[in-house]
Design goal:
By secondary structure, the chain is an alpha+beta fold. It has a single domain, classed as Cyclic Phosphodiesterase, Chain: A, CATH 3.90.1140.10. It is built from six helices and ten strands, in the order E-H-E-E-H-E-E-E-H-H-E-H-E-E-E-H. The chain has helices at residues 11-27, 67-78, 119-137, 146-150, 168-186, 227-232; strands at 2-8, 44-46, 53-61, 84-89, 92-95, 108-114, 156-162, 193-198, 200-208, 213-222. The strands form three sheets. Strands 3-1-9-10 form a four-stranded antiparallel beta sheet. Strands 2-7-6-5 form a four-stranded antiparallel beta sheet, covered by helices on one side. Helix 2 (67-78) runs antiparallel to helix 3. The longest helix is centred in the middle third of the chain and has 19 residues, at 119-137. GO terms for molecular function: 2',3'-cyclic-nucleotide 3'-phosphodiesterase activity; RNA 2',3'-cyclic 3'-phosphodiesterase activity. Keywords: Hydrolase. InterPro entries: Cyclic_Pdiesterase, RNA_CPDase.
Length: 233
């Protein structure tokens, strides 16, 4: 089984991210529609709204026998936490490394909605660091490459993955989308945002389907009490 640790979104935040994705497609009709996510011929693989999440740490393949120890490590981290809020805003991407020096800019790799940098995102980054340390100490990350463990944590919600077979038209469309979004954020208008609370961490399993994959919750580790409850005591 392939596992990772993450946090889920509220219904409102999930709808917001889905709206960002739909808006992107309406602005750029050359992109394949999200409803065609399972189509094998598309080089842009849209993530179903039900699978939206923020990854804290990828674990990878693990035997069923590893679950008790892994769950104990994650539960210990959750028990030290209180709830906090996160905000989502905008759309951006990571770029694929290419061996073609003439290909500028490089093609997009992952399209995502980033988190606003605030106190909530700082708490999430700290939580991710503790989760990674606990899993590493338990020996659950030994199969990961060193560069993956040392990679900077950038919290986000992935909405699409772009395969290496993406066409020049699709690449140009995605880059134009990002350019339009950056221009909008520079305007003197309040940006569209969505807030959601985090009160648990979740152990997910990636399950392969006939077409694509889905993320199933294996265990949920709830924080003992919310920050609002603490304020009232």
């Amino acid at each position: 089984m392939r596992l990772f640790v993450g946090v889920t979104l509220s219904a409102e935040a999930r709808a917001f991210v889905d709206g960002v994705r739909a808006n992107a497609c309406s602005r750029l009709p050359s992109l394949p529609a999200p409803t065609h996510a399972a189509a094998g011929g598309s080089s842009i693989k849209w993530v179903p709204a039900a699978d939206f999440h923020v990854t804290l740490q990828y674990i990878g393949a693990q035997p069923e026998s590893a679950l008790p120890g892994m769950c104990a490590a994650l539960r210990a981290q959750a028990e030290q936490m209180t709830s906090f809020d996160l905000q989502l805003e905008g759309i951006t991407c990571t770029f694929r490394h290419t061996r073609k020096p003439t290909q500028k800019p490089p093609p997009p790799r992952v399209l995502f909605v980033p988190l606003v940098e605030d106190d909530g995102s700082k708490q999430l980054c700290a939580l991710a660091g503790r989760v990674t340390a606990a899993l590493k100490e338990g020996g659950f990350l030994r199969d990961l490459k060193k560069r993956d463990l040392e990679k900077a944590f950038t919290p986000h919600v992935t909405i699409a993955r772009v395969t290496q077979s993406s066409s020049a038209v699709e690449t140009e469309a995605l880059l134009e989308l990002l350019k339009q979004d950056q221009a909008t954020t520079k305007e003197d208008v309040a940006p569209a945002r969505a807030s959601f609370g985090v009160d648990s961490i979740i152990l997910y399993e990636t399950v392969k389907l006939e077409q694509g994959q889905e993320y199933q919750m294996r265990e949920v580790f709830r924080f003992p009490q919310s920050s609002h409850q603490l304020a009232e005591t």
